[in-house]
Amino acid sequence: MRPSSFFGRFRSVPSARFADAVVVLYAISILLGGIIYLYFRVDIRPELERAGHWPALGFFDLKEHFAAIGFALLPAYWVCWRRPHADEPAQTRTMLTSILAFVIWWGFLTGHVVNNIRGFGA
C-alpha cells in the first residue's frame, strides 16, 4: 500500500539512496569549489587582505577546514546510512548528519558573506 501523505511518501524512500546522493553531491561540490578556489586565492584574497577584511578571511579559512573535515566524514556517513539496522542507536547517524549539515551551511553562508564584501563581479 502506498502512503497517501507527502511525509509518508518522503519517509518511504530508502535512506541508502539519500546517502548516495549526499556523498556524490558533496564530492562534486568539493571538486568545483577547488576549481573556483584557485581564482579566489589569486585574484580576490589579496584585495580582501589589502582592505583589511581579516575576520571574513578567517571565517573563509574555517570554511576550508570544515569542508575538509566533512569530506573525511563522508565514508562514515555512507556506511552508517547505507544499511541502518533497527537495533542500532540512531545517535551516530544523527551526529554525522548534523555535522555535515553544519559544514554545508557554514560554507554556504561564509561564501555569500565574502562575495558580498567584495561585490558581485567587481
Keywords:
elongated; single chain; mainly alpha; 4 helices; 122 residues
Q: SSE order, as H and E?
A: HHHH
Q: Report the sheet-strand fraction.
A: under 5%
Largest sheet: none
- Overall geometry comes to elongated
Kindly state the percentage of residues in helix.
Answer: over 70%
Q: What is the SS-derived class? A: mainly alpha
The low-pLDDT segments are: none
Helical stretch count? 4
Tally of structural domains: 1
Q: Gyration radius, to the nearest Å? A: 18 Å
How many angstroms does the end-to-end distance come to?
56 Å
What's the total number of strands? 0
Which assembly state applies to the chains in this document? single chain
Write down the overall mean pLDDT: 85
Detailed description of the structure:
It is elongated and about 55 Å long. It has one domain (14-118). The chain is mainly alpha-helical. The model has no long low-confidence stretch (mean pLDDT 85). The longest helix has 37 residues, at 15-51. It is built from four helices and no strands. Helix 2 (15-51) runs antiparallel to helix 3 (54-82). Keywords: Membrane, Transmembrane, Transmembrane helix. The chain crosses the membrane at residues 21-40, 65-81, 93-114.
Give the helices and strands, then pairings:
Blueprint: H1 6-11, H2 15-51, H3 54-82, H4 91-118
Helix pairs in contact: 2-3, 3-4
Keywords: Membrane, Transmembrane, Transmembrane helix
Transmembrane segments: 21-40, 65-81, 93-114
